[in-house]
Design a protein that fits this description.
InterPro entries: Biofilm_reg_signaling, CHASE4, EAL_dom, EAL_sf, GGDEF_dom, Nucleotide_cyclase, PAS, PAS-like_dom_sf. This is EAL domain-containing protein. Keywords: Membrane, Transmembrane, Transmembrane helix. The protein is of the alpha+beta class. It folds into six domains: 147 residues; 118 residues, Beta-Lactamase (2-Layer Sandwich), CATH 3.30.450.20; 45 residues, no CATH class; 101 residues, 2-Layer Sandwich (Beta-Lactamase), CATH 3.30.450; 160 residues, 2-Layer Sandwich (Alpha-Beta Plaits); 248 residues, Alpha-Beta Barrel (TIM Barrel). 50% of the residues lie in helices and 20% in strands. The chain contains 32 helices and 31 strands. A hairpin with a 3-residue loop joins strand 24 and strand 25. Helix 2 packs antiparallel against helix 9, helix 9 packs antiparallel against helix 10 and helix 21 crosses helix 22. The chain binds ligand C2E and calcium ion (2 copies).
């Protein structure tokens, strides 16, 4: 380049004779002209290329931004729609209290994600739930969007089977918006029975107003991303959204680095060319004059040399003005040139690096840089991403473009892209991690799992999946607020992470649901040890403000290859095992077993049979008389429900009450029990009361008091003749709520007894603080009577305690005369049991009352 030209000039002057000089000068001028033209052309080409690349790149990132937006919307709608609870509360029935008031799918969708619209459309395409900008509304989704969305609904429902949500760009009042829709399905929740209606659809609408677009653009490094106006129609920086741009077009500002380069470079070349022309003209005139040909031309050439030096300096300025640095290597990969910017950008010394091989300076992801440069037919417009270590020891990333030089070797530019790459990695991280706990989310879990399963786990090196669900987490959220709930989740997350090894994965996949993937464990014993450790660690109290919060965890375990080799199946099996662990009393773990699935299907069948049975009068109520022990007088009876199943015969309550509790059928069932019991008892002699069992789940639904009140009113029974039996689980789950409900119940005039006393561990304190009228000693104590002195002593103590607290003590499960004798000896108030009377059908019970009335006797025992 310029250096070589200068040496030509020198050679010329040494061989000087007028004619020779002149001829050479013409050649030289031609050459110079050629050089300038070439320089200008390459500058224009370079600038054009730079702009084009920038354009392509920004278009690429804009498109990426839109795709990522759609993807994140899809995964969000998916998380909400393929969820058993959503199915129960937004499809089976629409429960705005659950969805909006308790913020399961409500205002947070706007607050956290900025989705302006949230809708649920039912099976006949009516909008049944609308939240607009975080506020509950009654507006049809089509009306709000100003267009029909039937095709979107169809597509969302078509994806129900494969749990695939759909997204589409549309235009809402001139503003583009993304609509994400997914059919609501039970997900992997084995407790939900899908009905035959076509699924409801959950819809999120993300309106891309200018602020939002600008934010999205920022994340992807696209400058001033906005809705395109009519004036920008011809611009290149446009991206139509939706099919054929129906949703509108977005526009961004391209930085046009080439244009800037031209702005500086072309005038400089122009000036240099002008100078050289002037110089040549002067030389020519002088040679024609012929006088001091040699000297003059020598002198002119001297000045032209100066001009060249100037122009060289200007070229250098141009190169140095750009933020990139320029490099050159010889055929042996050694650096022969590094521009000054090299030092500024990299902080490395030019002196130290010129002469070293380029492979020592830079490395690529795929191999050495020399390997990349040697790729045959490598396209010169493709750049490569390289890494180097700066003087502070930090890894930096640079994008390198290279062109082969004719004489061998390469030259090119290098752009620092460290920040850009880091920003992109951050976005990637955010899309794969849970914002609250920083743990991997469902997306990351799926990726990790697929990767591990592709490596085909073996029996010796299995893949273990633990599905975890916190017990008693909901009350924390409800009573202490969401901030406390978040703190608990964070504490749990870090405890879980502490329990596993480095290569394992802990993911949070839902409110209080976590999944652990372990690959370093081979025996069942080790898994159980780990489960023990996890449970112990979670059980430790969590300090929140001045309080200590206790949660526990249930764990379901599935393994590959033993149970399955598919991610979705493993997840489902782990969930089934989790469900078993919860049924087994929580705070424990279960391995998946083939028959669990069958058991769950069996349970579901029972559940749907029960739903039918309650409606069609298959329930029966038996009454078991209760007697005063001192004189054998009958004082009342406990109502015990049974189910007359058309195929299976009479089913005891222990089999179907838990199913009713889990499916929510307990309310309908209990309503029937309460009203039937009150109606029957209203016909009994006035001195007999009826005792009704309540389930702890009923306490949590708000309307227990109203239901009891209604039954009392409808049957006109004296409330003093009604006793409600509750177990201590009621107080364990939500003591404050239980206290409130019990006080209100007492105001109605009914009595309350604690059932199954002695089976829990904290009953004593509850007895003292809650408004109980009586307690029933669990029948397991009587069963063991005589076996151990301890149990005798316990019964004695309980009776004493009852007396101290003025409670009526009832012993359950009196099976022998000895039992009765013993209870009499300790002055237990009341008793019931097979020895006195089994639970009786209504007719038999009425007959018993009849006999009592006639004979005046009080006991049939
Ligand atoms: P529970 O409240 O402890 O009811 C007493 C159970 O002990 C009854 O079983 C009764 O038949 C049985 N039993 C009575 N005397 C004796 C005896 O001398 N020896 C023995 N071994 N057992 C005796 P059942 O009817 O099968 O009820 C089981 C449980 O189901 C009840 O336990 C109660 O927790 C629940 N349950 C029954 N009916 C209802 C109801 O209407 N609503 C709710 N929520 N739960 C109910
Ligand atoms: Ca009972
Ligand atoms: Ca009992």
């Amino acid at each position: 380049m310029p250096k070589n030209l200068a040496s030509i000039v020198c050679t010329l002057t040494h061989r000087s004779s007028v004619s020779l000089t002149r001829a050479s000068l013409f050649k030289f001028a031609g050459l110079l002209a050629g050089v300038f033209v070439l320089a200008s052309v390459s500058l224009v080409y370079l600038a054009h290329d730079l702009d084009r690349k920038e354009e392509v790149e920004s278009a690429f990132y804009t498109q990426k931004a839109m795709q990522s937006l759609e993807k994140s919307l899809r995964s969000t709608v998916k998380d909400y729609a393929f969820w058993g609870d959503a199915y129960k509360h937004l499809h089976t029935e629409v429960d705005p209290d659950w969805a909006f008031v308790r913020q399961n799918i409500g205002p947070t969708v706007y607050k956290d994600f900025g989705f302006q619209g949230l809708f649920v459309v039912d099976d006949v395409n009516r909008t049944v739930y609308s939240v607009v900008k975080g506020e509950l509304k009654t507006v049809e989704v089509a009306e709000w969007l100003g267009q029909s969305i039937t095709p979107i609904l169809d597509k969302a429902r078509a994806g129900a089977e494969t749990e695939t949500p759909t997204t589409v760009f549309i235009n809402v009042n001139g503003v583009p918006a993304v609509v994400a829709a997914a059919a609501i399905t039970p997900g992997t929740d084995p407790t939900v029975v899908p009905d035959d209606r076509q699924p409801s659809v959950l819809i999120f609408v993300d309106v891309l107003n200018s602020t939002k677009l600008a934010l999205i653009g920022n994340d992807f490094g696209v400058d001033r991303l906005q809705i395109a106006s009519a004036g920008e129609a011809g611009s290149a920086s446009l991206l139509p959204l939706g099919d054929g741009g129906v949703a509108g077009t977005v526009h961004w500002k391209s930085s046009k680095p080439g244009l800037r380069l031209l702005g500086i470079g072309l005038p400089l070349i122009g000036i240099a060319a002008l100078l050289v022309c002037l110089m040549v003209w002067t030389i020519l005139r002088r040679t024609t004059a012929g006088a001091q040909a040699l000297d003059a031309s020598y002198a002119s050439l001297q000045s032209s040399q100066n001009a060249l030096a100037t122009s060289e300096a200007r070229f250098r300025d141009v190169v140095e003005a750009s933020s990139d640095w320029v490099w050159e290597i010889d055929a042996g990969w050694r650096l022969t040139f590094l521009s000054e910017r090299f030092e500024v950008v990299t902080g490395l010394s030019r002196e130290a690096w010129v002469g070293a091989t380029i492979d020592d300076l830079l490395c690529t992801e795929l191999g050495t840089l020399s390997q990349w440069l040697s790729i045959p037919n490598r396209r010169p417009d493709i750049s490569v991403q390289c890494r180097y270590v700066d003087p502070q020891g930090r890894e930096r990333i640079t994008r390198l473009s290279a062109r082969a030089m004719t004489g061998g070797g390469f030259r090119g530019t290098a752009t620092d892209v460290t920040e850009e790459v880091e920003a992109r990695q951050r976005i990637e991280f955010l899309s794969q991690h849970d914002a609250l706990t920083g743990l991997p989310n469902r997306t990351r879990l799926r990726e990790f799992l697929d990767g591990k399963l592709n490596a085909l786990p073996t029996l010796e090196q299995p893949l273990i999946m633990l599905s975890l669900d916190l017990d008693r987490f909901k009350p924390v959220n409800d009573l202490l607020g969401h901030a406390a709930g978040d703190a608990v989740l964070n504490a749990v997350s870090s405890r879980l992470a502490d329990c596993v090894r480095d290569g394992d994965l802990v993911a949070r996949i839902g409110g209080d649901e976590f999944v652990l993937i372990l690959t370093d464990i081979s025996s069942q014993d080790e898994v159980e040890t780990l489960c023990r450790r996890l449970i112990d660690s979670i059980e430790r109290p969590i300090a929140i403000d001045e309080q200590e919060v206790f949660v526990s965890v249930s764990i379901g375990i599935s393994m590959a290859p033993t149970d399955a080799l598919e991610a979705a199946e493993l997840l489902r099996y782990a969930d089934i095992a989790l469900y078993e662990a919860k049924s087994a009393g929580r705070n424990t773990w279960r391995f998946y077993a083939g028959d669990m699935n069958a058991r769950i299907i069996e349970r579901r069948r029972l559940e749907s049979d029960l739903r039918f049975g309650i409606k069609h009068g298959e329930l029966r109520l038996h009454f078991q008389p209760r007697y005063r022990i001192a004189d054998g007088q009958m004082v009342g009876a406990e109502a015990l429900v049974r189910w007359q199943h058309p195929e299976r015969g009479l089913i005891p309550p222990d089999t179907f009450i838990p199913i009713a509790e889990e499916s929510g059928l307990i309310i309908a069932l209990s309503n029937w029990v309460i009203s039937t019991a009150c109606r029957c008892a209203a016909q009994w002699p006035e001195n007999l009361f009826v005792s009704i069992n309540l389930s702890s789940t009923e306490f949590k639904r708000g309307n227990l008091v109203e239901r009891i009140q209604k039954a009392l009113h409808d049957t006109r029974i004296d409330p003093a003749r009604v006793e409600l039996e509750i177990t201590e689980s009621v107080m364990l789950e939500d003591a404050a709520g239980a206290m409130e409900v019990m006080r209100t119940l007492k105001r109605l005039g009914v009595r309350i007894a604690m059932d199954d006393f002695g089976t829990g561990y904290s009953s004593l304190s509850y007895l003292r603080t809650f408004p109980f009228d009586g307690l029933k000693i669990d029948r397991s104590f009587l069963n063991r009577l005589g076996e151990s002195e301890d149990d005798n002593a316990i019964i004695l103590a309980i009776v004493g305690l009852g007396r101290a607290l003025s409670l009526t003590v009832t012993a359950e499960g009196i099976e022998t005369a000895e039992h009765l004798q013993l209870l009499k000896a300790v002055s237990c108030d009341e008793g019931q049991g097979y020895f006195l009377s089994r639970p009786l059908e209504v007719e038999a019970f009425d007959a018993l009352l009849e006999r009592l009335g006639h004979t005046g006797s009080t006991s049939n025992a």
